Amino acid sequence: MVALQEGLGEAGWIEGENLEIEWRLAGNDTSLAARLATELDSLDLDAAFSASTPVTRALIQNTSDIPIVFAGISDPIGAGFVESLPRPGGRVTGFMAYEASLGGKWFQLLLMIAPHATRVGVLFNPSTVVNPGAYWFPSMEAAAAARGVEIVLLQYTTEGEIPALIQDLLSEPNVALLVGPDLSNQTFRRTIIDLVNASTLPTLYTEAFYVRDGGLVSYGASFLDMWRRAAVYLGLILDGARPAELPVQPPSKFDFAINLGTARKQGLDLPVEFTLLADLVVE
Questions:
Q1: 66 and 159 part of one domain
Q2: Number of domains comprising the chain
Q3: Which of 24, 202, 204, 229 would give a disulfide with 114, using CB separation of 3.0 to 4.6 Å?
Q4: Average pLDDT, stretch 258-272?
Q5: How far apart are the C-alpha atoms of 29 and 49, rounded to whole Å?
Q6: 269: left (phi over 0), alpha (psi -120 to 50) or beta
Q7: What would the mean pLDDT of 202-226 be, rounded to a whole number?
Q8: In terms of domains, do 62 and 108 share one?
């Protein structure tokens, strides 16, 4: 939120001076997101910002003509939010968090942590991840096939199902875990991190805040950068630009983060180059 406010301020829009912001938080509750979007539709807003696929969908479906700028979306075309990246074609535009090739990159990094892994679990909630994961999953499958590694889809609908999924994965030797890009994973990250760290399960996350909260390693687009760039688009819309004129943009800055304290507790030896290349190192 701070990054969004700072970006708007840099564009000349100051909350409390020439800008009023109506904050609403829905988490991964899609029903709540729909109700909040309906509420916002009655407020005669000039623009709206969303930070996930479920919330963006709720805004589109439950508002009439509010221009929407999103950040952190995997596949806006596949989700039906825009017609194309250069020409969104409607009242929605924004900034993507994931490129299709990232699935392969995540897989390669995970196997650097766990070079002997023969099975990799991918954790996600199919109701809160787009397609689900079809945008980046093919590149992961290709990387897995090249290494002869099996991918196991760990799908859940409630937080209470997560422990059993991780225990089932751990029942086999030579396993690793990818905590995929998913609003539910973000919401339940404390549970996921605690379960993983209680074992020696090598795990890669897709956002740096997992590592700040105790996760082992992450690689993904910088959400702070995306929010700042989204603020620029919001400023342009407040100045009269239309979303259809503003192309959807891919991520431009990526964060590679490692938690050395977690690695030591799990008895894992991270590659030396990880420390040298990391944007964030948590001791």
A1: no
A2: 2
A3: 202
A4: 90
A5: 17
A6: beta
A7: 94
A8: no
Q: In the chain, what is the straight-line distance between the N-terminal and C-terminal CA atoms, in Å?
A: 26
C-alpha to C-alpha distance for 215 and 209, rounded to whole angstroms: 8
Q: In whole angstroms, how large is the CA radius of gyration of the chain? A: 19
pTM: 0.84
- At 68, the amino acid letter reads I
Domain span at residue 66 reads 2-99+222-252
Average pLDDT, rounded, for the chain: 92
Give the Cα separation of 83 and 17 in Å (integer): 36
CATH number at residue 18: 3.40.50.2300
Take residue 4 and report the two structure tokens written for it. Answer: 């969004």
Give pLDDT tens digits for 10-68.
889 999 999 999 999 887 788 999 999 999 999 999 999 998 888 999 999 999 999 99
Helical ranges in the chain per DSSP H:
2-10, 30-41, 53-62, 102-113, 137-147, 162-170, 183-187, 189-197, 208-212, 223-238, 260-266, 272-277
